[in-house]
Amino acid sequence: MADDGTVADDITIADDIVERFVEFGQALRHHRLPVGTDDVLTFCQAVAELTPSDAEDVYWAGRSTLVHRRDHLPIYDEVFRQFFLHLPAPKDGEAVKERLRSQGLQGTLEVPDTEPGEEDGDTKPLTLGLQAASVEIERTKRFAACTAEELEAVRRMIARTRLEPPRRRTRRRCPDPSGPIVDIRRMAREEMQLRNAAPTLRRRDRKERSRPLVLILDVSGSMADYSRNLLQFAYSMRRAAQKVEVFCFGTRLTRITPTLDRRNPDDAMRLAASRVLDWDGGTRIGWSLDDFVRRYGRRGISRGATVLVCSDGLDRGDPATLAEAMERLGRLSHRIVWVNPLRGDGDHVPDTLGMAVTAPFIDELASGHDLASLEALAARLPNVG
């Protein structure tokens, strides 16, 4: 920051600049924005990667790391304008980019008038991995054929997908106008209170509650093109319900449920990847499922639960061990859904030894090779319980 109140052309991450960025985070918190210490650190790291930076780089770095909701953007723009540019409040809805242009600090990047993925008139939207015009087409593109930018956009779409766990009916009953059971007791109580009034037909039905969900993800080398997207799916499911347990396996089983309890999905993904020591390694499905049944299934985690096993069925272990583990898992759990990315669209069953052994114990075979198949699974999941 120059002495005259303008933004310098080049910004280096020195101690005074870091203090300035920390004060900026405090200013955002003063305006009721949920900005944490980790967000400010990420903001400083992002600016450091962009050095030498101009005002627009700082603006976009802060917007990408400090703003988590779209309705917070106007507050962020106003605080940035007053804190870094020392400009008064805009007149007639003038945006920050107009102020940057007037100060000659716009740079080479054109700031879009709309969010990425939206169109405003004939203006072409900002391309961010998947273009808005081709979202429906890209939903059916296999994860193995996507670029790194497209996979990042797919993970954001998975994070925005509305997920609900399977549900089950309990023995408790509750009032329900369309229920099949006539509530005679309630009608009698109302009749005794109203006396001369005509009785009203009251009905009730059994309550519903979330069924436990267990996800067992194959993160071996053969699943490298799909494992991280399935892990993002598991993270989103964990955020949607509390009765969700997540395990990963390659040659050994690892419980990663506590690592997914993070507000930032990127932090959760990194922590989960560091916890799994055999990521992109070999595969021993039978031994891993047997370990799950012995250590966790018998303790009640899978009892009455819907179990999702995400694997391609390429196993290097003993088929007898796999068959025995699946048979015991089927007795403990309510339902087993096997998600195999090799299935693709249609009714094709992958011709692998693991799938041939597990086929008699699977209640449903689903596909998870693209975004559309994961969305279909998410829509069908509440009814599989």
Structure report:
The protein has helices at 15-30, 37-50, 55-66, 73-85, 96-102, 135-138, 148-160, 184-194, 227-240, 265-275, 285-295, 319-332, 353-358, 371-380; strands at 167-175, 181-182, 203-210, 213-218, 244-249, 253-255, 306-310, 335-339, 364-366. By secondary structure, it is an alpha/beta fold. It has three domains: 15-102; 169-209, no CATH class; 212-383, von Willebrand factor, type A domain (Rossmann fold, 3-Layer(aba) Sandwich), CATH 3.40.50. The strands form two sheets. Strands 6-5-4-7-8-9 form a six-stranded mixed sheet. β4, α9 (227-240) and β5 form a beta-alpha-beta unit. The longest helix is centred in the first third of the chain and has 16 residues, at 15-30. The radius of gyration is 27 Å and the shape is flat. The N and C termini lie far apart (59 Å). Mean pLDDT is 77; it is low at 1-12, 92-97 and 102-137.
Layout of strands and helices, then pairs:
Elements: H1 15-30, H2 37-50, H3 55-66, H4 73-85, H5 96-102, H6 135-138, H7 148-160, E1 167-175, E2 181-182, H8 184-194, E3 203-210, E4 213-218, H9 227-240, E5 244-249, E6 253-255, H10 265-275, H11 285-295, E7 306-310, H12 319-332, E8 335-339, H13 353-358, E9 364-366, H14 371-380
Parallel strand pairs: 4-5, 4-7, 7-8, 8-9
Antiparallel strand pairs: 1-3, 2-3, 5-6
Helix pairs in contact: 1-2, 2-3, 7-9, 11-12
- Radius of gyration, whole Å: 27 Å
**Percent range for β-strand residues:** 5-15%
Give the beta-strand count. Answer: 9
So, the CATH homologous superfamily of the largest domain?
A: von Willebrand factor, type A domain
Low-confidence stretches: 1-12, 92-97, 102-137
Alpha plus pi helix count: 14
Broad shape: flat
N-to-C series of helices and strands: HHHHHHHEEHEEHEEHHEHEHEH
Biggest β-sheet description: 6 strands, mixed
Average pLDDT, rounded to a whole number, is: 77
CATH topology of the largest domain: Rossmann fold
Which architecture of the largest domain per CATH?
3-Layer(aba) Sandwich
Give the number of domains. Answer: 3
